[in-house]
Structures are given as structure tokens and as C-alpha cells.
């Protein structure tokens, strides 16, 4: 637990609690005993504390901290802190690996800190809904000042050894044998006065600015982490660091108690464990196929097909993980643009050597040797099937073929090949090199080995892989459907897009549904609806009532906006919406043939073709002309105004657009909707409860095996506020299943034709029988 040894006058205490040397009460007890022994022994003149194996202690053991052992754990932790801080013999911490939370706090309580260059320090408690409650909020500001301490503690960010040296958090970076160096360092400081080495005795350097700093940070936190109590409570604790040390510690302890008993801390700790538990996947339809039984294929090289937004991001992710990539694109201009984006991003990450792992091509035969292909071409089933047919012929037989489709049928794509067992969905999220989620979709014939391979790929590239079943939209986008529909229905009834966004953002989402659509592009959903024959490029399908599709309520507002060229704010650089371009439709929508440079009005072309997708397909496969459709499609949206908001040139701030507001008002009038005042609570409930209700359907159908899979998808792919634990956790632990059911019953009685408000049978059943979401699923839960 804590091994004691002596090297002449130096006592060495090595924490030995593999794999992370976390502090359990027994580890802490052993540390206390070791410290007492060292203090008692007159032959010992200095002490070194280190971690055995791969790391210095990574903090308190969460399972103990959250369970019944919390009280003895905390009291032992305080005892260690006291022993260290008051010790009359110099204590040197020798840091390697990750000194996190209580581990870093122990180091701060010591007199000297040495670290290897690769060491990382941090106080990540805020991510667990807590604060650094072992003196971290009091000692860190005494070293780095209140301003930096607030920044480091409220972000929980990593501090690399070199940065720690600059900040004065470590005294020396050790290049060679850490323990040997620490012992000799300890020997060199024996007998020196210790008072100025005790951080607790120092004063905060920027104490006079504390109120100013706190006020400024509060505003940032309220904007960035709306609804989360831990960051603001951390600030309160840090604010107390200007008081005498003992008073500050007492304040820290009170605030820690408050946080530890809050529902948000429990929610965030659930997130921590769920993020890890999704790796322990099992096949929802056959529990014998799971992470233990299925062996992944080793992937060393990956082909990426399509160098658009997603292809470029996926390529960056793969290169950063050290994989070889062959990036294929049919449009030379697009390929060049992607290469520039990849180069720039890798350069920013100081990873230019990774570019040597990249081959770019327009020739499919270059994919003959890769271990796996990830397809990221346009979202069109016919095109994807065509691409997979080609890949099946060209790639080696054992290669895995994955599609990045955001919702198309994996089985249909697989059927285009002679290796459906090797076909799988790998749904990345935009920006693919930033977003942590990888939604992996197995088809009817996907083999266990293929599933294991893509789940392993997620880990290899630093993503959180979640295994889900195949259905339209899979888990994430399928649940988003009802949420978006309900947001639109709210517009019909009287609220403005900005009201909906505000309510959802106040709940904690970084962006409401309308700002999100503006950013992603309103045309994405439009194309999907056109493909699903819910609408056409010219308006509702013939003989279709304006407000209904297949018997269900439908809001055509987004289609109407698209028809007006209001496609949203694209994520591309320099993209902005110009007020003057609003009504300029024909100029934006065109396709240019490279052969003679002639420009065709897309609207006129469409009049002779079935769908926009089919037109693009025809052009892609035509030999006599190279299509600039992608560029033109981007152009279309670059120049078009946004769906619901106005963006001043150079700004991403959404402003209400009077033209859109007028259009919604006219629409209400035309369809006889009476404007009424709707509360933020109703907005949040109708949008989020309908999304969560769909989550119950998803569980019922076995598309997701566990509620935690859904939570992880929403937390890591859709910006669901982390402090609430995810949609399913939130509804069960905070709202209550019974309340959800009653609310859905009320809303569905009021809106009987909003089918997504009809409570799911699983929800009804669970309320009737008192079931719990945590109990559903396949693996043993830690919680
Ligand atoms: C007045 C009141 C006084 C209150 C005093 C409170 C004292 C405090 O200030 C409170 C604390 O210390 S809270 C803990 C702070 N430490 C952390 O948050 C570290 C969390 N861990 C990590 O970041 C990564 O695991 C890490 C970077 C360390 C390693 O990452 P890897 O990717 O290498 O490994 P993982 O897959 O994440 O982890 C391996 C297994 O270990 C489990 N685990 C990780 N951290 C744990 C921890 N702190 N406690 C218990 N289990 C932990 C993790 O779940 C995983 O388990 P399996 O999935 O079963 O393998
Ligand atoms: N953009 C997003 O936020 C997300 C998109 N997706 C999915 O990823 C896929 C790609 O989306 P984006 O990157 O946004 O599209 P995009 O339009 O930016 O890029 C598609 C690229 O594929 C290329 N392409 C077309 N046919 C090709 C072929 N036969 N061979 C090689 N390249 C070909 C195009 O020239 C274009 O560069 C779609 O299935 C989409 O639904 C998934 C998650 C998020």
C-alpha cells in the first residue's frame, strides 16, 4: 500500500496501489504510519514520497469516496495533509505519470516537488462535480495567484511538467532516474529551514484583485457551464484563499461537503464511470458476443473515402493516433482543400511528422492494401452502395468496410458487398477530430470480430466508442428527430426561434436547436426529408396536406425556408450571412461544368430531374463532365441567409431575423395557429421529454443495450450538459420516471397527433413495476 524503505538518512514512501495508486483509506493509513515512523526515527532526516509503477497517485479512489468508506477516507486524507504540512523534516514528492486530485494536493502540501518531463498534474475534481477538497483550493492560489488558480481548477486542465516548473508548482525537472534523483535532492536539503517551503504559510500574490477576478470569472462560467454548480463553488472556495489558511481550509471543507452531497456530483461521477463502461460492450441480441469474447483485427492502415468535412476530420484523428491513411476523393479541388486543412490542423498540434503517414489519391486502386476503409461521401444511399460495391472489389478480402453515414441503413449498404460480415457503421461527429463520440453500428450480418475491431479503433484514436443497433438515425440522430419536431411545433404555437434556443441553452446545452441547425446547415435535414419523400425540392409532395405526413403532424417551416434558399450558416471559414443576399436566390443555386465553364441554373436543371441527389449522382458518374457540385453546394449555403437567425458579417452571434419572424407569423395566420405565451419550462419539457421518450423506444427495441450508452452518446456527441448525467440518468434520478410519464400523458392528451409524445410502453411498464434504467442492460454496473 505504501512501501517504506530508507537510503541512509532518507526515508522513501512509495505508494503501491495498482494500477493508478489511488488513495483508499488503507493507502492513506499506510502513508500516515510511514510518515509517523519517519518522523520518529532520528536517523531519518528527510522523506521522499513517490508512486510505484506507472504513476504518482491519481487522486482519491472514487469508489471509496462515493461509498460508505468516504468518511474514513476523508479523515485519513486530512491526517496525511496535516502530517505532511507540519513535518519538521523536509518532504520531497517525486512525480511521474499523473499526479491528479488528491495526489497533486499531497504534492502541494509537501515542501519540494520534482517531476519527470512527461509528468502531468491537475485538479480535475470539477469534472466530478466536486472541488479539490484536500487543500487544493487554498494552496494552488498561494503559488500561482487567484486568477490562474481559478482558471486551472474550474477547467480541471492538465498542467505539463514544464508548465508546472514555470508556474512554480514544481522545483525541478528530473531527466534521469527519478527516485535516485529525489533521494539525492532530499539529502541536499536536509537541515534547511522549512517555514518558507510551506505553501500554507504564504500569502496569495494577487489578493488585492480577488474580487475583480472572481466577478469576471463568474460571468464566463455562467456562460460556459450554465447550470453547473461545481465551477462556481470552486470559485467560492478559491476566493477564501485570501483568508488565513485555517479559515480558508474550513471554508473549503464546508463547500466540499455541499458539493459531495449534491445530485450533480453523483451525476458527474456516473458520467466518469459510464465513459469507461461503454468499452465493456456486448451485442444486444447475443450476449455471448462481447468485449471479452470477440477479438479485434489489428488495424494499421485506413482508407478514407471522401475528403469533405467529415473525411478530413476523420483523417486527422487517424493520423494523430499514428495510423497510416490513404485519403481518396473524386474532386481534385476538394482534395487540395482537405490536404490544406489537415496540414494546418496537424501543424497547430505540432505533429507535422504525421503528414508522412498520409497518402492522398483520386485512384481507388490505391486502397487495395489498407486494413480498413471509412467511407464519408455524400449522404446518399445509391452513391454509398456504389462506393461499397467498388471497395468490395478493390480492397483485400479481410479489410473492414465502414460507413460514416449519419443514419442510412447499414444492412442495405452491406448488401452491396460480398462481405456483409465486414461491413459496419462508424458514425463520427463533426468536427471529427475534436468530438469524442464514435457511434459504432452493427448490421444484421456484422461479425463479432468486426464489431470488436471498430470498438478497439475508437480507443486507439482516443474516442469514446458506443455500440448501437441499426435503424434510421441510429441512437443519436433518431432521438434528435422528436426534439427538433417539438421545437418546430413550439414555433407554430407562438414562440420565436430565439425563445426556444434560450430555454434549451439555459438548461445547459451549448446551443439551442435553431442555432445548431443554422450551424450544421438546414439543407442536411431537408435532403434527408426529400430522400424519405416527406417533401420535395418544390414543396410538399403532390396531394399531401401541408401539416401532415403519413398521418403524423409535420411542420413544413424548415422546408419552406430551404425553398427560399435559407440553408443555414455553414461551418466553413469566413462564412457569414449577408443581409443583402437574402432574396437573391437564382444566383446562388447553380452548377458549373468544368468542360466549358458554363453555368446552369440548378432550379431549371431540377425541373428535368427527379431529385437533387439524383442529379448530383448522375453528374458524378458522368464521364464528360467533372462536377463541382460539392463546391457549389457549399457556395449555395455560403451566400444564402441562415435559417432562423441573422449573422452580421464576421460574427457568429445569432440575431433575430425580422424576415423569418414575419414568415412564421404569416404561417401561423395561414394555418390558423393562435399565438400564445409559452413558458421556458414547457419548451424544455416538450423538447427534451420527447427526445428522452424516444430513448425508451430505442432501449425497448434493443438499438441501445443500456441507458448509459444513450447517455454517453448524448454527452459526447450532442453537447448534453455533463452536470446532469445525460438524458436517461437525468430523467430517472432528477426528474423521476413517474413525473416523465405524467408529463408525457398531459402533453400527448393536448397534442394527440404528435406521436413522439405518446409515452413509450417501456416507460409505462417501468413506472408500473417500479423498474430502474440502471438495471436494464448487460454488464455489471459499478454504480
Ligand atoms: C474536506 C473534504 C476532503 C475531500 C478530499 C477529496 C480529495 C480530492 O481532491 C478528491 C479526488 O482526488 S477525486 C479524484 C481525482 N482524480 C481523478 O479525477 C482522476 C480520474 N482518473 C483519470 O482521469 C484517468 O483514469 C487517468 C488519467 C488517471 C488514467 O487514465 P487511463 O486512460 O490510463 O485509465 P482509465 O481507463 O481512465 O482508468 C483505469 C481504471 O481505473 C479506474 N479509475 C480511474 N481513476 C479512478 C479513481 N480516481 N478512482 C477509482 N477508479 C479509478 C477507471 O474507472 C478504470 O477502471 P476500469 O474501467 O474498471 O478499468
Ligand atoms: N457533416 C456532418 O456534420 C456529418 C456528416 N456525416 C456523414 O458523413 C458523410 C459525409 O458528410 P460530409 O463530410 O459533411 O460531406 P461533404 O459534402 O463535406 O463531403 C463529401 C465528400 O465526398 C466526396 N465524394 C462524393 N462522391 C465520392 C466518391 N464516389 N468517391 C470519393 N469521394 C466522393 C465529395 O466530393 C465530397 O468532398 C455523410 O454520409 C454525412 O451524412 C456524419 C456525421 C456528421
Automatic annotation (TrEMBL):
Residues annotated as domain 3-hydroxyacyl-CoA dehydrogenase NAD binding: 302-470
Pathway: Lipid metabolism; fatty acid beta-oxidation
EC nos: 1.1.1.35, 5.3.3.8
UniProt catalytic activity: (3S)-hydroxydecanoyl-CoA + NAD(+) = 3-oxodecanoyl-CoA + NADH + H(+); a 4-saturated-(3S)-3-hydroxyacyl-CoA = a (3E)-enoyl-CoA + H2O; (2E)-hexadecenedioyl-CoA + H2O = (3S)-hydroxyhexadecanedioyl-CoA; (3S)-hydroxyhexadecanoyl-CoA = (2E)-hexadecenoyl-CoA + H2O
An example Gene Ontology CC term for this record: peroxisome
Keywords: Fatty acid metabolism, Isomerase, Lipid metabolism, Lyase, Multifunctional enzyme, NAD, Oxidoreductase, Peroxisome
GO terms (BP aspect): fatty acid beta-oxidation
Subcellular location: Peroxisome
Record PANTHER family: 3-HYDROXYACYL-COA DEHYROGENASE, PEROXISOMAL BIFUNCTIONAL ENZYME
The protein's name in its UniProt record: Peroxisomal bifunctional enzyme
Organism of this sequence: Branchiostoma belcheri (Amphioxus)
Lineage: Eukaryota, Metazoa, Chordata, Cephalochordata, Leptocardii
Amino acid at each position: 500500500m505504501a512501501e517504506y524503505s530508507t537510503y541512509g538518512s532518507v526515508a522513501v514512501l512509495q505508494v503501491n496501489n495498482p494500477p493508478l495508486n489511488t488513495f483508499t483509506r488503507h493507502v492513506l493509513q499506510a502513508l500516515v504510519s510511514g510518515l509517523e515512523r519517519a518522523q520518529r526515527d532520528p536517523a531519518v532526516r528527510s522523506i521522499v514520497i513517490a508512486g510505484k509503477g506507472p504513476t504518482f497517485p491519481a487522486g482519491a479512489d472514487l469508489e471509496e469516496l462515493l461509498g460508505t468508506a468516504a468518511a474514513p477516507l476523508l479523515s485519513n486524507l486530512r491526517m496525511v495533509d496535516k502530517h505532511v504540512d507540519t513535518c519538521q523534516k523536509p518532504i520531497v514528492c517525486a512525480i511521474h505519470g499523473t499526479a491528479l486530485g488528491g495526489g497533486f494536493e499531497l504534492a502541494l502540501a509537501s515542501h519540494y516537488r520534482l517531476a519527470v518531463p512527461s509528468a502531468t498534474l491537475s485538479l480535475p475534481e470539477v469534472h466530478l462535480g466536486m472541488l479539490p477538497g484536500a487543500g487544493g483550493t487554498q494552496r494552488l492560489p498561494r503559488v500561482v495567484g487567484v486568477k490562474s488558480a481559478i482558471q486551472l481548477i474550474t477547467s480541471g486542465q492538465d498542467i505539463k511538467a514544464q508548465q508546472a516548473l514555470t508556474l512554480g508548482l514544481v522545483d525541478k525537472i528530473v531527466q534521469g532516474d527519478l527516485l535516485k534523483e529525489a533521494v539525492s535532492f532530499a539529502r541536499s536539503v536536509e537541515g534547511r529551514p522549512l517555514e518558507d517551503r510551506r505553501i500554507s504559510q504564504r500569502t496569495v500574490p494577487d489578493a488585492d484583485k480577488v474580487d475583480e477576478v472572481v466577478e469576471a470569472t463568474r460571468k464566463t462560467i455562467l456562460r460556459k457551464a450554465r447550470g453547473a454548480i461545481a465551477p462556481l463553488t470552486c470559485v467560492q472556495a478559491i476566493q477564501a484563499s485570501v483568508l488565513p489558511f485555517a479559515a480558508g481550509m474550513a471554508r473549503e471543507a464546508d463547500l466540499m461537503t455541499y458539493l459531495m452531497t449534491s445530485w450533480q456530483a453523483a451525476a458527474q461521477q456516473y458520467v466518469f464511470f459510464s465513459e469507461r463502461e461503454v468499452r465493456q460492450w456486448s451485442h444486444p441480441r447475443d450476449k455471448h458476443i462481447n468485449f471479452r469474447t470477440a477479438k479485434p483485427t489489428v488495424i494499421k492502415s485506413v482508407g478514407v473515402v471522401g475528403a469533405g468535412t467529415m473525411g478530413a476530420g476523420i483523417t486527422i484523428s487517424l493520423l494523430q493516433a499514428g495510423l497510416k491513411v490513404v485519403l481518396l476523393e473524386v474532386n481534385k479541388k476538394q482534395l487540395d482543400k482537405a490536404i490544406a486543412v489537415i496540414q494546418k490542423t496537424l501543424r497547430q498540434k505540432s505533429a507535422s511528422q504525421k503528414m508522412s503517414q498520409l497518402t492522398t489519391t483520386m485512384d481507388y486502386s490505391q486502397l487495395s492494401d489498407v486494413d480498413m476503409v471509412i467511407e464519408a461521401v455524400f449522404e446518399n444511399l445509391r452513391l454509398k452502395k456504389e462506393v461499397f460495391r467498388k471497395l468490395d472489389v478493390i480492397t483485400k478480402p479481410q479489410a473492414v468496410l465502414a460507413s460514416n453515414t449519419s443514419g442510412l441503413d447499414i444492412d442495405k449498404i452491406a448488401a452491396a458487398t460480398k462481405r456483409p460480415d465486414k461491413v459496419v457503421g462508424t458514425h463520427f461527429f463533426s468536427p471529427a477530430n475534436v468530438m469524442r463520440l464514435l457511434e459504432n453500428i452493427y448490421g444484421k450480418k456484422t461479425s463479432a470480430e468486426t464489431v470488436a475491431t471498430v470498438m478497439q479503433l475508437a480507443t486507439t484514436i482516443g474516442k469514446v466508442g458506443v455500440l448501437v443497433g441499426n435503424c434510421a438515425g441510429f441512437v443519436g440522430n433518431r432521438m434528435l428527430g422528436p426534439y427538433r419536431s417539438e421545437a418546430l411545433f413550439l414555433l407554430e404555437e407562438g414562440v420565436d426561434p430565439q425563445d426556444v434556443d434560450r430555454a434549451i441553452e439555459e438548461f445547459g446545452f451549448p446551443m439551442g436547436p435553431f442555432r445548431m441547425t443554422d450551424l450544421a446547415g438546414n439543407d442536411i435535414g431537408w435532403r434527408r426529408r426529400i430522400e424519405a419523400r416527406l417533401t420535395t425540392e418544390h414543396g410538399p409532395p403532390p396531394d399531401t396536406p401541408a401539416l401532415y405526413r403519413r398521418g403524423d403532424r409535420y411542420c413544413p417551416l424548415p422546408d419552406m425556408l430551404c425553398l427560399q434558399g435559407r440553408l443555414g450558416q455553414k461551418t466553413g471559414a469566413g462564412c457569414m450571412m449577408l443581409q443583402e443576399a437574402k432574396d437573391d436566390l437564382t444566383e446562388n443555386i447553380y452548377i458549373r461544368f468544368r468542360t466549358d465553364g458554363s453555368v446552369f441554373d440548378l432550379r431549371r436543371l431540377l425541373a428535368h430531374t427527379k431529385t437533387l441527389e439524383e442529379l448530383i449522382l448522375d453528374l458524378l458518374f458522368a464521364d464528360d463532365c467533372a462536377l463541382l457540385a460539392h463546391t457549389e453546394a457549399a457556395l449555395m449555403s455560403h451566400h444564402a441567409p441562415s435559417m432562423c437567425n441573422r449573422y452580421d458579417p464576421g460574427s457568429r452571434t445569432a440575431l433575430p431575423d425580422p424576415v423569418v419572424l414575419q414568415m412564421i407569423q404569416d404561417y401561423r395566420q395561414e394555418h390558423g395557429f393562435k399565438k400564445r405565451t409559452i413558458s421556458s419550462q414547457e419548451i424544455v419539457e416538450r423538447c427534451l421529454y420527447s427526445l428522452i421518450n424516444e430513448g425508451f423506444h430505442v432501449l425497448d427495441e434493443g438499438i441501445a443495450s443500456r441507458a448509459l450508452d444513450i447517455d454517453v452518446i448524448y454527452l459526447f456527441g450532442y453537447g448534453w450538459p455533463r452536470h446532469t448525467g445525460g438524458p436517461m440518468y437525468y430523467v430517472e434520478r432528477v426528474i423521476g420516471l413517474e413525473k416523465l410519464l405524467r408529463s408525457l400523458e398531459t402533453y400527448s392528451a393536448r397534442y394527440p397527433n404528435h406521436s413522439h409524445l405518446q409515452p413509450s410502453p417501456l416507460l409505462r411498464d417501468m413506472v408500473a413495476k417500479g423498474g430502474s434504467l440502471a438495471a436494464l442492460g448487460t454488464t455489471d454496473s459499478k454504480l
